[in-house]
Amino acid sequence: MNSGINLTTNAKELKSSYQSVLEGKEVNWVVYGYERGNELKVVSKGDGGLEELKDEFDEGKIQYAFARVIDPNSELPKLVLIGWCGEGVPNFKKGFFNSHFNEVTKFLKGYHLQINARSEEDVDPDYIMKRINESGGSKYMANINKNAPVKKDEPILPVRSVYQPEKIPDIAALQKSVRQEPILPVRSTYQPEKIPDIVSLQKTASKEKEEEEEEIVRSSYQPEKIPDIAALQKTAPKDDIKPVVRNLFVQHIYNHGAQNFVVLNLKSSVYKPVQLPKPKRLGTRATWITEENNPPTSGIDVRREREEREKKEHEREERERKERERKEREKKERERAERERIEQEDDERREQERLEQEEYEREESERAEREEHERAQRLRQQKEADNQEEEELERQRKEEEEAYRRQEEESLLQEAQSNEPEPAGTYFARALYEYDAAEDNEMSLVEGEIIKDIVQLDEGWWQGTSEDGTRSGLFPANFVELIEAEIQNPEEETELELEPEPQETHEQSALPSAKAVYDYEAGESNEISFVEGDIITNIDFVSDDWWQGTAQDGSVGLFPANYVELLG
């Protein structure tokens, strides 16, 4: 399915209207719309300017307008291209507006201002003129010297569209381009502590103990006032206590691992240690070692506590690392699911738009076929009605002619019956032309046959009998010529008297003549043809509408009376 706009079917009409607006001779605006799907056609055009143009836009359609206006500041013509997409346009058709409008901008070149219109405010003449004034610096040209020579207008060059189609970002490509920082393992803060040599410490301590026992130490005990440790702790800064205690504790462990840590050097303390005389030996060396030099157990506990604390810290960091990895995996999974959902929705939306477009095109095709069928049916019915009307008029005309002919014949018969035939004798005539009887009271003639018992009922119609006596009736007088006369009384002399030729010539010259005013072509065998200006002689006024006469070629027959005018 091709969803692009079709500019080729009506290309000639589109270019012609576009050129008319460029020249500004006949029209100054034109509106384009769609026909049968995506075929662009000219909807309307006019010379009423923007005021007339604004009423041509439909809320339920996509339309394009090309207009020519005069800039009030520069007094130069400006061309405006308007793309109209009404609020009532179906959503699937709105998706094609930008691509179609881009093609229209390439086709309708040379415009100075492009407007994407959605409502009546966007096509208001004041708004458009405001945009014209703001574009191209035309509002700064009001003080141009009008007496300066006018430059010849340069040809309008095509202006490249500033439209840039928006590109949908590819989330997958963006994620690939982002550098993923590798997750590095967190180094442990654990530092192995050097274990003091307990045996050497014990030997050093025992040696010092023996030297002290040899000397008598004088007691220097003096009672001191016991300091209020709680009060001192309240007055001392709390932040300074912990680092000092920890530092003293660690230093004592390293320097005096075999000795018990008894006194803490508290900052700002007034406590003084009590000096005691050297004690006597109170037991064996093993007892002293086991009872007084037991700090290695305390050092091991500190190390074990530190190791456990570092192990817990390491486990905590490991848990945090795994938690971060889990959250990162969940985030990527959510992004992938969201990306798949968006792609699926886009596919469903495109499929829905395709189905709606196909349904719309099918409905448009059916509507066009239905309108074409209805138009053809109306034309056929109109043609049948016209044919019936013509047939009815023809039938009425023939009936009127037939009635008129019968009336004429009846009047001739009545006139003939009222006139007594001449007792002098019977006329004979020879048929000059063939004649087919049109009525029951008429007789047919055969060229060259002899007609007897002729009764001259009228100047145009005679009555007679065929030579064999099988036929009798009326016939046109100009289809025969008299040849002889016979005396009806057998007792009297029968003598055929031929009519003298000079007398006939004299009678013919005495009949009126007429000049043809129009051309006439014979429609029947008993009629004559002539052209304008011909002279018809020996005219016999058969009826008011039809006369009988002799044409210039010598033919004798009927002709319409209103086609000639009498001479003299």
From TrEMBL:
One GO term describing the cellular component: site of polarized growth
InterPro entries: ADF-H, ADF-H/Gelsolin-like_dom_sf, SH3-like_dom_sf, SH3_domain
CDD domains for the chain: ADF_drebrin_like, SH3_Cortactin_like
Domain ADF-H: from-to ranges: 6-133
Cytoplasm recorded as keyword: no
Region Disordered: start-end pairs: 285-425, 490-509
GO biological process terms held by the UniProt record: regulation of actin filament polymerization
Biased amino acid composition, Basic and acidic residues: 301-357, 364-386, 394-409
Pfam families reported for this sequence: Cofilin_ADF (PF00241), SH3_1 (PF00018), SH3_9 (PF14604)
Chain ranges of the SH3 domain: 424-485, 509-568
Protein name listed in UniProt: 10039_t:CDS:1
UniProt organism field: Acaulospora morrowiae
